[in-house]
Amino acid sequence: MRPIWLCIAAFVLAGCASTGNGAVKTLTQERAAQAIVIGKSTKADIGAAFGAASITTFANGYELWLYQVGYAKVVDSLPYVNLVVNSADNKRELSILFDRNGVVKKYQLRE
Amino acid sequence: MRKTWLAGAAWLCIAAAALAEQSVPKVEVQGTAQDRDEKSYRAMLAGMDVFEKNHGLAPAASLRFKVFPRRAGVSMEGLMLQIAGDRTGIPVPLAPDQTFTLPKNAAAADDDAMVRFNRHAGSLAWRADIRSRDVPPNARRLGDLLLECRVAMAGDLVAYVHHPINMLIAKMDDPCRTMPINLFYFADRPVFSVTLVSGSRRSILPAALLHGPVAPMMPDHEDWIFLRERVYMVRFKSLYDQGWTDDTLLQFDDMDDDA
Questions:
Q1: pLDDT in tens, B103-124
Q2: Pseudo-torsion of CA B212, B36, B128, B158, nearest 10°?
Q3: Pairing of β B201-204 and β B185-186
């Protein structure tokens, strides 16, 4: 691999590590249940608790916020890099689904 | 002088084309235009052969093909399908769920016929649809999905960027099982989470495998983006290496289920 590609890969990967404010690293199911209330917690509440997420919006009006410990999901968009490094290899993540009103509909902590 | 003449001729051509555009009403005859959404019949036959050779992955299933809308505004009403070539015109029945099977016809293969829908190119996402009997309604079986992947590769069903490296991977002996490729499957409904289940063993699939990449590099070359909320991926090599078997079920937690 040419040095320029190594530099690009290092730059990209360095910028793709984790999402959020780090709270998910030590989050337990019990604390998640306290911090995230289905049918009540809003995007502002979740943003305040966990920081900026990787956000996917859907045509049905729902929105998924994903907090990953390890690589952020943007890595998965990089052709060929994603064959070697993929955020699906992360061991810990928190995904939160918001309904059309911006209120938590479901969440899941994977650890 | 010559430049002036050329410019004049060019202007006349443009004017004539514009006039023709205005004076001749546009009539789109479905199924006869050149840019129809179509796949090679020979390639799809190759996919059918792969299904037969690998039927052991899904012994209680048969092979169907299925199409999904690829873009907003694509109507699935009035969808018609045929195997079409210079000397071939075989209508193919389409089920209400947009699935179909193909007959084996040597003459159509010799004619290098196409499997053609009455929709513009890029309107549809094509997939294999292999479902074993007795699988619960909101679940899929791992062996069925692996076989779908193999058929899709052999049948050249899935849209992708035809970069030489991608084409090389697609032509490998078994990229589905040996490479961490991104084949995008469509769940029956918008999906929030997927859990692998085999007996008492359970494992949640990473959310990173759902809904596709955040920022697809070349979205016009992808066929899954319109149905993003239903998309999931399966890393077969990793799962089989971890001991998950063909009979493993993927259970879907829909976005609209109660939590």
A1: 999 999 999 999 999 999 999 9
A2: -40
A3: unpaired
Q: Which residues in chain A have Cβ-Cβ distances shorter than 8 Å to B207?
A: 64, 66, 93, 95, 108, 110
Sequence letter at residue B11? W
Q: Which of A73, A74, A94 to mutate to test the interface with B (most CBs of B within 10 A)?
A: A73
CA distances from B79 to B67, B116, B118, B137, B217 (A): 10, 11, 6, 26, 30
With an 8 Å Cβ cutoff, the interface of chain A facing chain B consists of 38, 54-56, 58-60, 62, 64, 66, 68, 73-74, 76-80, 82-83, 86-90, 93, 95, 97, 105-108, 110
Does the predicted interface ipTM exceed a cut of 0.85? Answer: no
DSSP per-residue letters across B125-194: EEEEEE--TT--TTEEEHHHHHHHHHHHHHHT-S-----HHHHHHHTSS-HHHHS---PPEE-SS-EEEE
Q: Give kind and range of the element (H or E) at residue B51.
A: helix B41-53
The pTM of this model reads 0.83
Of A55, A73, A97, the CB nearest to B208: A73
All residues of chain A having their beta carbon less than 8 Å from the beta carbon of residue B210 are: 64
The whole-angstrom separation of Cα B203 and Cα B224 is: 25
